[in-house]
Amino acid sequence: MSDTSPATTDLRGLADLGHAFADAVPELALPWTAAEAPAPRLLALNESVAGDLGLDPAELRTDAGLGLLVGTRVPTRAKPVAQGYAGHQFGGFAPRLGDGRALLVGELHDRGGGLRDLHLKGSGRTPWARGGDGLAAVGPMLREYVVSEALHHLGIPTTRALAVTATGATVRREVPLPGAVLARVASSHLRVGSFQYARALDQASDQQSGAQSGAQSDGSGGDVVRRLADHAISRHYPELVSIGSDPERYLALFRAVVSAQAALVARWMLVGFVHGVMNTDNVTISGETIDYGPCAFLDVFDPTTVFSSIDEGGRYAFGNQPPITEWNLARLAEALLPLLDEQQERAVEIALEALGGFREQYAEAWSSGMRAKLGIAHVDAEVGAALTDDLFGLIRGQADYTSYFRALGRAARGDLAAARDRVLDVAGFDAWATRWSSLQPDAAAMDRVNPVYIARNHLVEEALADATAGDLAAFERLNDALARPFDERAGLERYAEPAPAGFGAYTTYCGT
């Protein structure tokens, strides 16, 4: 625990704040408190999220509410903790990561009865910080707010932003920047990296016991992993609790995570979202998108697109996201092996068989999603796949991903020029359009799944630059547009347009 204890606050809606994660796996929960915030000032408050959690937006704007949002005043029952986890970062294993600049305040129920984590990002240095200052700047925290809300309104599972609060402190990066804390809400913060860290703790415990007894340990224990798995099942997949056999229940947990991640990444691909840093500590057990560092959306369609400044080899390029997800899930399988079977060889066989379901489930989610985008949900997968492949061959490196599918919606109504004029191979498009049109695509259905407005990179950068300078108007306008992404509205034309030619190549940064 840090030296000072925060003041307490008992805002409405927080009386029943829980700490089930810290109780279930205290080995992964380090009690800690937030750093002082000299002059907290609310920048953005998500009243919809607040209402869903039973919190009063007016109270959150008070001094007590601001104290909650930066972590200097916590509910009486709260036990803030910095969570521990490991992770493969760009393929290399880091055995000890954790929340270096974040705190889990606790868990509260939403209006539907589900548990939600209340989590603070940028709340100060913790022992997991590995040399960092534990702080965050206004720009990256507002980026997470706007992009996570964009995904939410697109119907994609994600953590959500409750608020971004300026701290009044200065963050030292390449240049001095105003500091901020993001209050984030998630169904949990359990990650593949959480299980990797738990498995490492179990292996260390086994080795210590073996050394004391003089026996050779094979690292096949699993007390921390077991408790973490039980907590994950209770939190996210309670329907599995009734499975009587331990190995079958834990295998069912793994299968459930495989399914959740297959569906999630297919949805990313369908809207052109590039996460940018798909390390195993950024892969949730719930199937929610988490951690919006170097994220971005495609402009021109190209599977090799990379935005992150540190992804020099293209490991997390747009087109690599499905196979990388499968690789990450294999790392989860490794952590769960002791729970799947006492014999490691047999456990590996079981895990590989379950992991094999990822490709099939991803392919089905992608195929059905693409047929919906093309307005041909009624055709079989093989026909849809052929049309999709040929279309991507026509638009690769040429057409804006998002606006092109909206243009196809107009083409389905008879205005072929809207899509025809955006490709170089006009004859190829005409042949493709003849095949597609013969299937009678449903234009109205296309408009329901193909967004007009996404968090376009140039608009996000414009909003963040202005906000860092103290002007939130562009940020607020962008959020308003993204709240109804499928409804074309007068006056919002610039939010539907690709980046201007002068915007140039786009590079994103982790914001740490």
SS field, number of helical segments: 19
Count of the separate structural domains: 3
Number of strands: 13
Please indicate the percent range of residues in DSSP E strands (runs of 2 or more).
Answer: 5-15%
Q: Main β-sheet, in a few words?
A: 5 strands, antiparallel
Q: Report the radius of gyration as a whole number of Å.
A: 24 Å
Mean pLDDT over all positions: 94
Strand order of the largest sheet: 3-10-11-9-8
What would the principal axes of the Cα set say about the shape?
globular
Question: Helical proportion?
Answer: 40-55%
Low-confidence stretches: none
Structural class: alpha+beta
Classify the oligomer.
single chain
User: What distance lies between the first and last C-alpha atoms, to the nearest angstrom?
Assistant: 23 Å
What does this structure look like?
With 512 residues, the protein is α+β, with helices and mostly antiparallel strands. It folds into three domains: 7-189, no CATH class; 228-365, no CATH class; 380-502, no CATH class. The chain has 19 helices and 13 strands. It has helices spanning 20-24, 47-52, 57-60, 63-70, 138-153, 192-213, 223-236, 246-271, 321-340, 344-355, 357-373, 381-395, 401-411, 417-420, 426-437, 443-449, 457-468, 473-482, 493-496; strands at residues 7-8, 29-31, 41-45, 73-74, 81-83, 87-89, 92-94, 102-109, 115-121, 160-172, 176-186, 273-274, 296-297. The strands form five sheets. A five-stranded antiparallel beta sheet has the order 3-10-11-9-8, sandwiched between helices. Strands 1-4 form a two-stranded parallel ribbon. Strand 8 and strand 9 form a beta hairpin. The longest helix has 26 residues, at 246-271. It is globular.
